[in-house]
């Protein structure tokens, strides 16, 4: 397909090439082969310079950043990623300790800045970054990843490792629309055991040594190996332009090779709600309601009282606390009782 159009008085030709690749769904051995489509866009400009093309691309990026929705891709095995658009989430809606919040927001903003790729090229390091979020479920790790992608106006990929093997995960990373944020949630709980250095060997040893076969023995089940995962994250031919976020509830179970600098450049602990974050959550839930019945200064005073009554060391997650406050919409005084 070809499309001819103008921008700022210049003529452009956009060519869209669609390629189909036959794939087999690893999660359904009895299913028929499927076809995944990949698109390649070729943009040409009439004239002797590429400056109009760069100007047009910058214009598209600016328009994209002004959108109110975020492109989210959920990736399972070799199936085409499921895409949906969700409302963007501002970093200001993520309730963290202020110092931790500033550290994460500043680091992510710097990575996605216009000068970041040039900086990495100049110093000879791949343009990519990795975070490890640790903490119990419900503490806001997923929300934080969504907010980071929203603030940068880049796509968000959530990859389900339990459906992946080395080859399929490599294909996913190769086809990423960069720059982007890539999330590997609960990396310690992957059923394929990517943290286990003996995963491949164990798969090979599942065949009964005493069995006899009329033909060749069956092939061992393909798994995602630790070596394969490490190579995909930061191998010589690894993808660049993405911020990789791994999350875990059990950081001690991870292989040290996975969390070294270059793979997990920063480790952030996202813990239970504190007195400080409880006050932030209270203000956010009640203060940002367009239908609120109380003045902002009243809500702030109630938030301070809520914080004073909150346990110094709690086992309450941010999600649970937000849910509690939401049940008292327009009744912040009742939330204190």
TrEMBL record:
<dbReference type="GO" id="GO:0016887">
    <property type="term" value="F:ATP hydrolysis activity"/>
</dbReference>
<dbReference type="InterPro" id="IPR027417">
    <property type="entry name" value="P-loop_NTPase"/>
</dbReference>
<protein>
    <submittedName>
        <fullName>P-loop containing nucleoside triphosphate hydrolase protein</fullName>
    </submittedName>
</protein>
<dbReference type="GO" id="GO:0005524">
    <property type="term" value="F:ATP binding"/>
</dbReference>
<dbReference type="InterPro" id="IPR003959">
    <property type="entry name" value="ATPase_AAA_core"/>
</dbReference>
<comment type="similarity">
    <text>Belongs to the AAA ATPase family. BCS1 subfamily.</text>
</comment>
<dbReference type="InterPro" id="IPR003593">
    <property type="entry name" value="AAA+_ATPase"/>
</dbReference>
<dbReference type="InterPro" id="IPR050747">
    <property type="entry name" value="Mitochondrial_chaperone_BCS1"/>
</dbReference>
<feature type="domain" description="AAA+ ATPase">
    <location>
        <begin position="127"/>
        <end position="274"/>
    </location>
</feature>
<keyword id="KW-0378">Hydrolase</keyword>
<dbReference type="Pfam" id="PF00004">
    <property type="entry name" value="AAA"/>
</dbReference>
